[in-house]
Structure formats: C-alpha cells, structure tokens
Design a protein that fits this description.
Layout (H helix, E strand, L loop, with lengths): L1 E6 L25 E4 L4 E6 L5 E4 L12 E5 L16 E2 L2 E5 L4 H4 L1 E6 L4 E5 L6 E6 L4 E6 L8 H13 L12 E3 L7 H14 L5 E4 L20 H10 L3 E7 L2 E2 L5 H8 L5 E2 L7 E3 L2 E4 L6 H10 L1 H4 L5 E5 L9 H14 L6 H9 L7 H4 L2 E6 L13 H11 L7 E5 L7 H16 L6 E4 L2 E2 L7 E3 L7 H16 L5 E2 L1 E2 L8 H11 L5 E3 L16 H13 L1 H13 L5 E3 L8 H5 L4 E3 L3 E3 L9 E6 L3 E6 L14 E3 L2 E6 L5 E6 L2 E5 L18 E5 L7 E6 L12 E6 L1
Parallel strand pairs: 6-23, 12-13, 12-27, 13-14, 14-19, 19-22, 22-24, 24-25, 26-27
Antiparallel strand pairs: 1-11, 2-3, 3-10, 4-7, 5-9, 7-8, 8-11, 9-10, 15-18, 16-20, 17-18, 20-21, 28-29, 29-30, 30-35, 31-34, 32-33, 32-35, 36-37, 38-39
This protein binds ligand MIG.
Length: about 725
C-alpha cells in the first residue's frame, strides 16, 4: 500500500511514474510524526531497539544505516572518509524494519524533494529517526506491506520500485569486463590496453575515454591529433570486440567559435545569475557555463549533441562532474582576494590563521550553488519561486524570450533543486539517444544522481580509493542503491585514488565478478592498475573468465531485477528475515535468486567466516578450474550454520542456494568478449537437496534491441 502525504506545494521532481492522489488525512502516528511549519519540514520517528534501517542508496557505512547522519546533497568530494555525510547521489528512500513486529511496524518512506535533506538515523539521539528539509513543501510517500505478504521487505521495496518506474537496462556488452584510466591520451594508449589484455588472454569489452580525448576538454569534440579518425578507430576496436566509452562533463567551455557554447548562449540554454547574466564556473575546460538541464528545451538541445559521437559509432557514455562540480567561480575568487588582502601586513593570530588559510578554499562553495538559477516549467515548480529571484531573473527571461513565456517558466534557485541536476543531465542524454538510436540500447551512466534517474541510466559510485575499507563499502553500498532503483551500478574496481596493491585488486575483482557494472578505473598519477601490470596475471584471468562464464546468470537476474522491480543484490535479511543472525550479516550478499557471494575483503586473509542461513552448496573457483567443462565443478554441500572457509588469494568461492540452479556458458578459449558468448547455449550447475529436478527460469534477449513487453524471452531450464 502506498500513501502520499503532501505538504505545501512541492516541486515536481518527476521521480515517480505513478500518480497517487495525496491523502486527505495526516499520517497515522504509528509511522511517525510530521511537523510542517511555514518555512521548513520535519519528520520524526521513535525507533525501537531492534529496528533496522535499510536504504539511502549511495552513502557510507553499513547496510543498516542506523547510528549515523546523512545529508542528501550531491557532492563532488573524492575523499570518502568515514566522517563524510554526502556522496554523489541523493537517494531519499529508507525502510524501517521491525524484526519483532514485521507486518505491523515495518514501513518505508520516500522523501520526494529536490534539495538538501538531512537524515539523522539515531545519531543525535540513538532511538530517534529525524528527517528534515529547509523548505516546507515536500511529498512524503509511506509504503507498507499487506498482511498477506509473505516477505515484507521484498514487498515494500517492490512497491516502491513500481512507484518510481522501471530501471535502466544497458546492452549485454556492458556486462563484460571494462577497463578505464584517467590519463589514456590517444589511440596508441587505447590500442596498448587492448593488445596487453589480448596478450594476457583476459576477456574485455570496453575501454574508456576520459577527458583527454576531447579538444581542450570541450564536450562533443575530439582532439584530432590524439584521435585522427575516431570513427575508423572505434570501428576497428569494435571489430576486436572493444567498445569505446567517452566521458561527457557537465560544464561547457566558454570559447568563441565553439558551436556548443555559442548555440547555448544564443538560445538561452545556460544557467543564469540573479541579474540575468550567464553563470560562469571553472571546471576542467577552464571557465564554463552550465547547461540548464531543468529547462526541457535545453535538455533536448544538449541531449541531441550526443549524436556527434553516436554518428562515429560510439555506443556508450559516462556523464561526469554533474553535481555539478565547481572548481571555482570568478566571483568566489574575487571574494577570496578581497578577504586575503584584509590579512596583508597584519599579524595573523591563531584564530585568524585558520580563517586566512580557508580563504583560498573556493571549491564547490554553497554560496556559488545559491547564486544561479534554472528556468523551470511553471507547472513543475510548485511554490519554488523565491522572492529574491523574482525581480531580476524573471525580467531577463521575459525580455529575451518574449512575454508569451511569462507564465510558462519560473526561475528557481539552483541550491533548492540541486539534487536534480545530474539526474536531468542523464535524462537529457537518454531521451535524445532513445530517439537517435532507433534500434539499439546504449550504455549510459552518471556520477551524480537522484531517484528518478534510475530510469535513464546507471551509476558508478565515484572517486573511491584503493583501500580495503572501500572494497567493504562497495559490498555494502550496492544492495542499498538497488533498493533505490539503481541496478546497473558498480564501484571503480581496484579503487580510483591511491595506489592499488595486487592483493587488493585481485580480491576486488573477485567481488566485482557479480556486479552489473564491472569496471577497473584509476586516477591519473596512481599506479598503473590494468590487470596485466601485476604479477601472476593468470590469477586475474581466472576471475574475469568466470565473470564471462556466469554472464547468462548475471544478465538474466539483472533483467528480472529491472523488469520486476526486484533487487539484484540483496542483503540476507531480504530472504531470511526470520533469522536473527542473517539480519546482521552485511558482508555476504544474495546475487539474484540462486547465488550467495561471500567475498574476502581483508588484507592477508586466507579465508573468512561465512554464515549459512540454510543449507547451501559451495563452489570454488581456482586457477586450475577448467572453463570448458564447468558442469564438472563440485558443489559441496554445507548444512546451515557458521563456518571458516579457506580461500587462498587466487581463489574465490560462492554458494548456490538450496534447490536452486545457475546457468553458465562453458568457455572454449580465452581472448573473448561478450560477442563470443552465446547466452542461449547454457548448461546448469545446481545444488539439489529435496528436489528431483531443479529448474531455472532464464530471462534473455538479443542483448541489444530495445526492451519491450515482448522482447525478453523467459524460458525454463531443467537440471
Ligand atoms: O576532477 O575526468 O569521478 O572518474 O576519471 C576529476 C577525470 C574529474 C572525476 C571522475 C573520475 C574521472 C575524473 N573526473
């Protein structure tokens, strides 16, 4: 059951796809109290001792979010240390689960709101959940299970996901292994990556083009010295099974003669300041303007620019810097100079010293986010036309665009709808690509996101580090982002910042085998992180080969999750909710319906403890595994309980659930890509306990055509 409680006149974020009429009554008090004043909104709930809080998507800490504060405000902050409260996404969905009273006292909340939200999940007061926003207008959805539901957590999440609409499905090749690095300069660098992987016999499907492929970091340009003919190069690479995936940044370089800039200015498609002048901020290209992705016309314009690369045979993109990230604004720099001059010649005391030092901090300033505006269709803007932006900005719009537009658009301050920016950049790309590519699906994912964007693209979880704690974080974050609709997701495998040790990279690959987005990516200046740069490359090859062997299962379970609003990665609690121990396990995940993974994420560990909430069959993959006859792999029966499992550095294990099966492909040779895998020709591996025959329903399609009601085949396989 979904109920909507509406406060004030909210901004329509377009995050949901179902229209639910707002309730006339107030929220029943057993689900918490709402306090809406003239200026702000507050929600409070008294937590019971055993309540578990799930959800909140891309955030730090555990699967159970209890005990911390989180702030939804898409942030470009590459240092994901434990004290941070915001990452790149704004995923305002949480579940309050009551193990003692699951039916009556479990519920979920979706705070449909475009700006900053504070979630205090038992941090300030251990037993209090407090959610607050600075503006009073908000849509609050309450989702409860029906008494007849056998699985409360699954029912609640599935209902929520049907409210927000079907998750994005990329092409099959995007489930292959992908290699990226910030710093690949030219054709030669990319070719080397391809050749080295080939030499190592490691399958690969994509190589990424980071910002250096562009001419002076200008979106939709290609540096012709580095890539003399991208079209030909992309074609040659694709013949080798490799897709090139270029990055697109949010900021558009200010440069006379640059068509994207000139057109954007002439059509009024960039964000403006209060006085009506175009807002200017510096990012990689130097000073730039930000496309106004909240304006539907600007969105269509920017999205159509992807054609410039699609027409060269490009079929995948990653959207970056779309929080939007701001290195500095000329205004902020001017202020900094003013302030710093105040200190000149003075004896800086201890307090002043800290202020003095902070004057040069001009990155991602809140005051900058407050200083620019979007042109939003009035019917979506709710009561978001603040007094301060009425005069100057409004006047400018009307003057330039004619009076007929007067009531159609409202200028809205960026800070108030900050979390919708990256979402609408990716929506812009997706909506145009949908029209431009009539036949096929294109890979698309984003750094910043908000619920709603999950319909248009996937996410990667941004600039993590080559730290063991970030591998652990990756394991815990993925089920949470799944709950919020982001099924095509993954972290930079091996870590983006810092140097990655061989052991960390190997263990990370052994986990990412199961992640829909499996991309090794690293920052400029760090140790070369391509797998072939490490000793005993065959250990890596084992992991990647297994990924390809398991593709039929990964893809099928992904399709089920996307089409049926399920989780691809679930915490054990979603399946074994009556098992008190299972409720606390956060380092083992269910992968689809048949597999439980139990990755090693600790340095120097040669095994780990595993908790089995029911009888399961252990499968072990080692460098000796024969990928051409995987049906001969032993599936070792284990009874429900706790075990220490030895797992050497070059091995990994996973479990097949009781009476379940998994489809896989045998691999005849190495040096492959997804194009060499026939997901129709599969064998099954299973763990039989009570059943005579196991069955698996495989979802499959041609891997590239658009998803329609009929395009996905569902066939039953028996073992
Ligand atoms: O300021 O394009 O998160 O993946 O390699 C850094 C360079 C900009 C941030 C992205 C990262 C990418 C990098 N970008």
């Amino acid at each position: 059951m979904i109920n909507l409680f509406r406060f004030g006149k909210p901004f329509n974020t377009e995050s949901t796809v179902k229209v639910i009429p707002p309730c006339a009554e107030t929220m029943p008090s057993n689900f918490g109290a709402t306090i809406s004043t003239n200026i702000s909104f507050l929600y409070e709930y008294k937590l019971q001792k055993d309540n578990i809080i799930f959800g909140l998507g891309e955030n730090l800490h555990g699967i159970n979010k209890r005990g911390n504060k989180y702030v939804s405000y898409c942030s470009d902050d590459p240092n994901h240390t434990e004290n941070k409260e915001s990452l790149y996404g704004a995923h305002n969905f949480l579940i309050v689960y009551s193990p003692s009273e699951p039916v009556n006292n479990s519920f979920a909340l979706f705070f449909d709101y475009p700006g900053e939200i504070l979630f205090d999940v038992g941090f300030t007061e251990e037993n209090k959940l407090v959610v607050s926003t600075k503006r009073k207008s908000i849509d609050l959805y309450l989702i409860t299970a029906d008494k007849s539901d056998s699985n409360i957590l699954v029912s609640i999440t599935t209902q929520f996901r049907s409210l927000i609409g079907q998750s994005y499905v990329p092409p099959l090749w995007a489930f292959g292994f992908q290699q990226s690095r910030w710093g690949y300069q030219n054709e030669k660098d990319i070719t080397t990556v391809y050749e080295q992987y080939k030499k190592a016999g490691i399958p690969l499907d994509a190589i990424y083009l980071d910002i250096d492929y562009m001419k002076d970091f200008k979106d939709f340009t290609v540096d012709s010295e580095r890539f003399p003919d991208l079209e030909v190069f992309a074609k040659n690479m694709k013949d080798n099974g490799i897709h090139l995936v270029p990055i697109i940044d949010a900021g558009v370089k200010i440069e006379d003669g640059y068509d994207v800039y000139e057109e954007g200015v002439s059509k009024d498609f960039f964000c403006v300041k209060e006085d009506g002048s175009v807002f200017t901020a510096a990012v990689w290209p130097g000073i730039t303007h930000f496309p106004d992705f909240l304006n539907p016309a600007a969105r269509e314009w920017f999205g159509n620019l992807y054609e410039k690369l699609l027409s060269k045979g490009i079929d995948g993109f990653w959207n970056d810097m779309n929080e939007p990230a701001i290195f500095y604004t000329p205004d902020a720099v001017e202020n900094a100079f003013k302030k710093i001059k105040e200190y000149e010649g003075k004896n800086i005391g201890i307090h002043d010293f800290f202020n003095f030092r902070d004057t040069t901090n001009v990155c991602n300033l809140r005051s900058d986010y407050k200083s620019f505006y979007h042109k939003v269709p009035t019917e979506l803007a709710g009561d978001y036309c603040s007094e301060s932006n009425q005069s100057g900005v409004r006047a400018t719009v009307n003057e330039k665009s004619g009076d007929s537009l007067k009531n159609q658009y409202t200028m809205v301050c960026h800070d108030d709808i900050h979390n919708l920016y990256g979402y609408n950049m990716t929506r812009s790309a997706s909506e145009s690509i949908e029209k431009l590519e009539k036949e096929k699906r294109v890979l698309l994912f984003s750094r910043a996101s908000c619920i709603g964007m999950h319909r248009y693209g996937g996410i990667w979880t941004g600039d993590n580090q080559s730290w063991w704690s970030h591998l652990e974080l990756n394991i815990k974050m993925l089920p949470s982002v799944n709950m919020c609709g982001f099924i095509y997701s993954g972290a930079d495998t091996g870590g983006f910042g810092s140097n990655c040790s061989r052991e960390l990279l190997l263990r990370w690959c052994q986990f990412s085998i199961f992640a829909p987005l499996f991309r090794n990516h690293a920052a400029a200046g760090t140790r070369n992180q391509e797998l072939y740069n490490y000793e005993n490359v065959d250990d890596f090859k084992t992991a990647i080969m297994f990924r390809y062997a398991l593709l039929p299962y990964i893809y099928s379970e992904f399709l089920k999750a996307a089409l049926e609003n399920k989780l691809y990665f679930s915490p054990l609690s979603f399946e074994y909710s009556n098992d008190i121990r299972a409720l606390e396990v956060e380092d083992q995940l269910l992968v689809g319906d048949s597999i439980m993974c139990a990755p090693v994420y600790e340095q120097n560990a040669r095994g780990r403890y595993v908790y089995l909430p029911e009888d399961m069959g252990l499968v072990r993959i080692t460098p000796l595994t024969d990928f051409s006859s995987l049906e001969t792999l032993p599936v070792l029966p284990y009874k429900k309980g706790s075990y220490w499992i030895d797992i050497a550095q070059n091995e990994f294990v996973f479990f097949i659930r009781k009476d379940k099966a998994i489809p896989f492909c045998n691999l005849k040779k190495s040096n492959i890509a997804t194009k060499d895998i026939d997901i129709k020709k599969v064998s099954l591996l299973g763990f039989k306990v009570n059943e005579e025959r196991l069955l698996y329903t495989q979802y499959l399609d041609d891997g590239i055509s658009k998803i329609t009601e009929k395009s996905v085949e569902k066939r039953t396989l028996y073992l």
